[in-house]
Amino acid sequence: MSRRQLLRAGGAAAVALPAAGFLAGCSFTQPGTGQPTGSTLDRLKQQGYARIAIANEPPYTQINPDGSVTGAEPDVVAAVLKRMGVPRIEGVVTPYESMIPGLNANRWDIIAAGLFMKQSRCSQISYSEPQIVSTESFAVPAGNPKKLTGIAAVKADPALKIAVLPGGFEDGALKTAGVPASQIVNIPDGRSGIEAVQAGRADAFLLPTLSLDALKTEGIEITGAITDVQQTGSGAGFRQADGALVAAYDEQLKALKGTPEFDQILGKWGFSGEAARGVTRDQLCSVAG
User: Which of 84, 134, 153, 216 has the most Cβ atoms closer than 10 angstroms to its Cβ?
Assistant: First the structure.
């Protein structure tokens, strides 16, 4: 994609800028090398904002009609960054499978998209401590005619086809469980997953429960939480070279978690602050996949 949609929190309109040109125009790089000068946190404070990768998947991330960025993860990230002296965030909409490569290529500063922790991701980037904890469900035709309750049922019937977002946690969960590629239907976004089930191209759409609740429509049923998927959750994602930034972020995240504001932010989107306080980064990074 040659142009990326940049969306600024706080109500500013969305603008499109070439990613390479945007970075080259930054005044916080070394002449001739393009390498950042000083610490990442110093740069974010000086420029007054951080670029975050988002996916526009409510309730994790959401773009408002006025172009502002919100959702459970961006709202937590914005609150923490303000405590760190960074007053604004700018969202860059990108597919899940592009988030880690884009972060490591310096296209954005932080991933704030509900990119669930698991072993493979935790080996490529550094996560903050958990900010949200979630469950997984299936979107199925009303009445759940195939009686889907978990991934084991999918493996037991080779005729079943499950829609997922490529590169998403659910895609990895199916593959880790040994579900063949022939049973996996790749779709570009949440609405397309629902439409695939409605049209019979997929028997179910696997996604976080709260995301499916936001997409629920007539003729579609959301199953209860799947019990044969490991507990999932996410934190803000950072480059591994930004250890000092992660440590500073974790310090302020811990402080935020001790206030009613944290519970209010998550509660607005249907998440539990207590659940996020009940797990650690190490626990979630141990999830296979």
Answer: 134
CA dihedral 282, 244, 247, 7 (to 10 degrees): -90
What's the CA gap between 14 and 7, in Å, rounded? 5
Q: Which two tokens stand for residue 65?
A: 């009609």
Task: Provide the Cα torsion 274, 278, 282, 288; round to 10°.
Answer: -90
Alpha helix ranges (H) inside the chain? 19-24, 40-47, 72-83, 96-104, 119-122, 151-156, 169-176, 190-198, 209-215, 243-257, 260-268, 273-277, 281-285
* Dihedral of the alpha carbons of 19, 120, 164, 97, in degrees to the nearest 10: 10
- Reported residue count of the chain is 289
What distance in Å separates the CA atoms of residue 154 and residue 228, rounded to the nearest whole number? Answer: 11
Once rounded to an integer, what is the mean pLDDT over residues 140-161? 96
What distance in Å separates the CA atoms of residue 23 and residue 32, rounded to the nearest whole number?
Answer: 13
CA 164 from centroid of its chain's CA atoms: 14
- How far, in Å, are 66, 88, 225 from residue 9 at the CA level? 10, 6, 32
Contact, 130 vs 257, CB < 8 A?
A: no
